[in-house]
Amino acid sequence: MPPSPQASSRRRWMILALIGVAQLMVVLDATIVNIALPSAQEALGFSNESRQWIVTAYALSFGSLLLFGGRIGDLFGRKRVLVTGLIGFAAASAIGGAAPGFAVLVSARALQGAFAALLAPAALSLLTTTFTIPEERNRAFSVFGMIGASGAAVGLILGGALTEYLDWRWTMFVNLILAIPTAAAALRLLPDDAVRTSRARIDLPGTLTASAGLFALVYGFSNAESHGWGSALTVAGLAAGIALLATFVAIERRVEHPLLPLRVVADRARAGGFLALAVVGAGMFGVFLFLTYYMQQTLGLSPLVSGLAFLPMLGMVMPAGAIGQTRLLPRFGPRPLVAVGMLLSAAAMLMFTGVTVHSSYATDVLPGLLVIGLGLGLIFAPAMDTATRGVAGPDAGVASALVNTGQQVGGSIGTALLSTLAASAAGAYASTHQAAADVAAQAAVHGYTAAFTWAAAVFAVGALMAWLLLPSDAPVVEPDAAGVEPVFAH
Q1: What does the alpha-carbon distance between residue 466 and residue 87 come to, in Å, rounded to a whole number?
Q2: Helix (H, G, I), strand (E, B) or coil at 191
Q3: Which of 25, 57, 108, 470 is a plausible cystine mate for 95, CB 3.0–4.6 Å?
Q4: Would you call 473 exposed, middle or buried from its count of C-beta atoms within 10 A (0-12, 13-18, 19+)?
Q5: pLDDT at 450
Q6: Strand 475-476 relative to strand 487-488: parallel, antiparallel, unpaired?
Q7: pLDDT digits (tens, 9 = 90+) for 335-379
Q8: Phi/psi of residue 475, each to 5°?
Q9: What local confidence, expressed as pLDDT, does residue 131 receive?
Q10: From CA 133, how far away is CA 442, in angstroms rounded?
């Protein structure tokens, strides 16, 4: 006897819960280690120049392998790939938590990124294929979008608490507590969706050029942060990345079974969704990176208190995301929601440019956090929904991978670009204010405000792109024989 509609609905929401935990683990791991870095550096004795690779190794591995991970899910079944990703992520986290030195820790972070590249697209594509009823889909993407918008801040809070009250190693070990029960639940809840007819259809030339191109691009921008834009490695990385990605597009036009079917990105609305998520990934780091430094080094807050200081932002993300996805998106479409969210985020960044050495959290940081929380809540769920809507079932994994690729590559570029601009501004200020008693502190804050100004410009460009590319129509259901998801009316 088939399950009742109520039982099927209950099962779908249980699947959403385990998908949400998997996504939270991937998102928070991009930031949970950040606050623990000073403690890890002291314990393992690595240099200031080396510490960025604890963060970059994860982003490099994750970003460069996402498209491959998404296609693997399409070919071998998302349940199998999700469970493999969860178990592998837990094992890599255990190795990192027990690391006796820098090399093992960096290797574990790269391994985490590789398994995250399996896990993240499988989770989002399962969400896309599980929730096809419009009302349920809106609620599910609202929850998923809130996790995407708030997970990085949750990572800062959790990382601060674990570092302060236990040990920095628990920022790695905590993934075992999340991953192992989620893998067990996935084995029980998820239907077997293994695809037996397409296992040999892996686009190796496309996989190699895409992975190498994304790796080179992210490496080039990451190297710029520490060695400058004129460094030979920076220039070589960026040039190689662009050349390899251009080669990848040429290959995908001709190959019979492409890693990235170009039809996935040919649709203007979906392309707008992907670009919006890349832009918000780049601009968001102006909040998480520079505000964290500002609150700890200028305001003197502890790691835990610095993490908790982001809670008001989360308090705005959640209701804004829920209202935007379930009430506003069906009525107005994604264009006004994402564009307004980008403008609110730009306004918040401009508010942060007013911070000084003598500012206070309540008057100079909190208002901007509330505004950007509202903005991010309006962006994430509609952009993710739009980027994956209208995708045929066999392409759901690679479309989901593009969502995460955009965020990872955008975030890496944003980190490098804003860090370089902040460092240049701080250096220029210090050289012209050498007589000031607190020149180091003043220069640092001047660098932060320069980064906030540029982040505001990034969000402003994102608003313009959203307005030009995203549809203003509400999504409608247009089922067809190919099993295509609901699309937008034009």
Answers
A1: 37
A2: coil
A3: 108
A4: middle
A5: 92
A6: antiparallel
A7: 999 999 999 999 999 999 999 998 999 999 999 999 999 999 898
A8: -65, 140
A9: 78
A10: 54
Inter-residue contact 375 to 348 (CB < 8 Å): yes
Instruction: Judge whether 87 and 72 are in contact, CB under 8 Å.
Output: no
Residues in the chain: 490
Q: What is the C-alpha to C-alpha distance for residues 444 and 446, in angstroms, rounded to an integer?
A: 5
Residue closest to 162 by CA, chosen among 152, 154, 174? 174
Judge whether 156 and 32 are in contact, CB under 8 Å: yes
The distance in angstroms from the start CA to the end CA of the chain is 41
What pLDDT does residue 435 have? 67
Please say if the pLDDT value at position 389 is more than 80: no
Q: How far is CA 254 from CA 206, 245, 297, 453, in A?
A: 10, 15, 53, 43
Instruction: Fill in the DSSP letter of residue 392.
Output: B
Residue-wise pLDDT tens digits, 172-219: 999 999 899 999 988 888 877 655 544 556 778 888 898 888 888 878
Instruction: Summarize pLDDT for 421-433 with one digit per residue, the tens.
Output: 888 888 888 888 7
Cβ burial of 490 (10 Å; 0-12, 13-18, 19+) is exposed
Contact 159, 171 (CB under 8 A): yes
Contact (CB, 8 A) for 87 and 100: no
CATH 1.20.1250.20 domain extents, the chain:
5-190+261-476
Closest by CA position to 459, among listed 343, 367, 334, 288: 343
